[in-house]
UniProtKB/TrEMBL annotation:
Catalytic activity: tRNA(Cys) + L-cysteine + ATP = L-cysteinyl-tRNA(Cys) + AMP + diphosphate
Protein name in the entry: Cysteine--tRNA ligase
Cofactor names: Zn(2+)
A GO MF label: zinc ion binding
Sequence motif 'KMSKS' region, residues: 271-275
Length: 470
RNA sequence: GGUGGAUUGGCCGAGAGGCUAGGCAGCGGCCUGCAAAGCCGUCCACGCGGGUUCGAAUCCCGCAUCCACCUCCA
């Protein structure tokens, strides 16, 4: 039983065989830190976090590199538009926002997170190799730009299965110093008015890197000239990934063996993006919901599908996830101990191995929840515990185990202790009222608590309370 | 014009020739003082038109609609 992944370049599912046994190298295109993270960025990072967790679970030693694009047209433009903030200050401020949002969602830090500005020498060396091999040229217009020569690279278009001649040739595009409209910038010559801090010296003049070259340079710098998996959002397939592939292969690198592309997040059937102005920002959504529920929601569609962020999505995800945690809480009460992780069921493994079919894996969790609840109803505690152990194992793989350290943010605060004591007393009062069949008084306590967002559940062993389903 | 992808029940969302996921919501029941939670049952499906087949949501052909990308984007 091996892992199968959908390789965008082949356009088919392929059995995953790493270059080195038991080791996997993954490069993921991270964000351009030009503005605050939105839900789409979170989903993308989450997809590769889940891939990494699954590969790790299956015994692979995973090296995950996710870059930070901290020098780019937009970074410079946005900093200039804002006024006094330096471009590097903006980039760093945004990078911190991204890191915070990732951490809030339980997305593990990558093995390494290189910044583009820290690999300029490698980019320059790569561009020199391309010039030497005749695949790149310095623009004839004295701009200092360097372009990749797409016409001299016969396989250009192979990633996205396009014939360059059929591409919409942006009729009004300014050729500048290009030989062909499809040639793309490896290097952008320094322009008057651009900050000196964004001006690096090269054999062909000062300037800054183009967008695509950084990923080729950093992927091979950290993962080698050939590595296993390259991932990123579907909207990066062209031009970004096509150009990465072209320049890396033209320079003689083997580059990525598998290309993965995650689906986008849509609102009302339309892609969420910075340029469309329909972004739902990570910070807003994290403020409006439990982070673990948001993680469940963003992981609940297959990674290649478009995920529609509809109005009631969070409430539905909360209800669904409460069903899982509700069962675990029942088991913990019955067993008077916290359940630990066991082995994942074979059906779950098969789903995950099949191109990371997490929706199918979640269905396995709910099947287990149902049978586990039945066991509890029938008083078969030991069986319920072993089911719960399997569920915790699956939740661990998905980063959704509410008992895992990254989610453990309650219980020790003074306010939580005070709440616990108050609730104990109120439940006692309610029980006394019920014992004397004073149901009006008992229900008043329950109604008051419900108004405060606290739910009471009566069980054969006494009443339990929960806040927001936890 | 080119390249990919999608259309599944009230909603979300898997599957991929016969076994008709899962969740949310709804309805009926069990349980409960009443609830809640849980369990059982239940309603509601595969965009349209053809074709192949004993059998098609699934394969083939055509059509429609939508989405993404074609050098700013996760």
């Amino acid at each position: 039983m091996s892992i199968r992944l959908f390789d965008s370049k082949e356009g088919a599912l392929r059995a995953f065989v790493p270059l080195e046994p038991n080791r996997v190298s993954v490069y993921v295109c991270g964000p351009t830190v030009q503005s605050s993270p939105h839900v789409g960025h979170l989903r993308s990072a989450l997809v590769y976090d889940l891939l990494r967790r699954w590969l790790t679970h299956e015994g692979y030693d995973v090296t995950l590199v996710r870059n930070v694009t901290d020098i780019d047209d937009k970074v410079l433009d946005n900093a200039a538009a804002a006024g006094i903030e330096k471009w590097w200050a903006l980039a760093y401020r945004m990078e911190l926002e991204f890191s915070q949002a990732y951490a809030a969602l339980g997305i593990l830090p990558p093995t390494y997170e290189p910044r583009a500005t820290a690999s300029i020498p490698e980019m320059i060396a790569l561009i020199e190799r391309l010039i030497d091999r005749g695949h790149a040229y310095v623009a004839a217009d004295d701009s200092g730009d360097v372009y990749f020569d797409t016409r001299r690279w016969p396989s250009y278009g192979s990633l996205t299965h396009q014939n360059p001649d059929d591409m919409d040739a942006a009729a009004d595009a300014d050729l500048r110093g290009k030989n062909d409209a499809r040639d793309f910038a490896l290097w952008k010559g320094h322009k008057v008015g651009e900050p000196d801090s964004a001006n690096w010296t090269t054999p062909w003049g000062g300037g800054r890197p183009g967008w695509h070259i950084e990923c080729s340079a950093m992927a091979t710098k950290y993962l080698g000239s050939s590595f296993d998996i390259h991932g990123g959002g579907l909207d990066l397939r062209f031009p970004h990934h096509e150009n990465e592939l072209a320049q890396s292969e033209a320079a003689g690198d083997g580059f990525a063996q598998y290309w993965l592309h995650n689906g986008l997040v849509s609102i009302g059937g339309q892609k969420m993006s910075k340029s469309l102005g329909n972004s739902v920002f990570a910070a807003d959504l994290l403020a409006a919901s439990d982070a673990i529920v948001l993680r469940y929601l963003l992981g609940s569609a297959h990674y290649r599908s478009t995920l529609e962020l509809h109005e009631t999505a969070i409430a539905e995800a909360q209800a669904a996830f409460d069903r899982i945690t509700g069962f675990l809480a029942r088991v913990n009460r019955s067993a008077a101990a916290d359940v630990v992780a066991g082995q994942v069921p074979e059906a779950f493994r098969e789903a995950m191995n099949d191109d990371l079919n997490i929706p199918q894996g979640i269905a396995v969790i709910f099947d287990e929840v149902r049978s586990g609840n039945t066991m509890l109803d029938d008083g078969m505690i030991a069986k319920a515990v072993s089911i719960a152990e399997r569920i915790v194992a699956m939740l661990d793989v998905l980063g959704l185990n509410p008992g895992a350290p990254e989610w453990n943010n309650t219980g020790t605060q003074p306010s939580a202790v005070a709440l616990e004591l108050l609730l104990e007393q109120l439940l006692l009062n309610r029980q006394e009222a019920r014992d004397t069949r004073d149901f009006a008084a008992a229900d008043k306590i329950r109604d008051n608590l419900a108004a405060a967002g606290i739910t009471i559940e009566d069980t054969p062993t006494g009443a339990h309370w929960s806040l927001h389903g936890r």
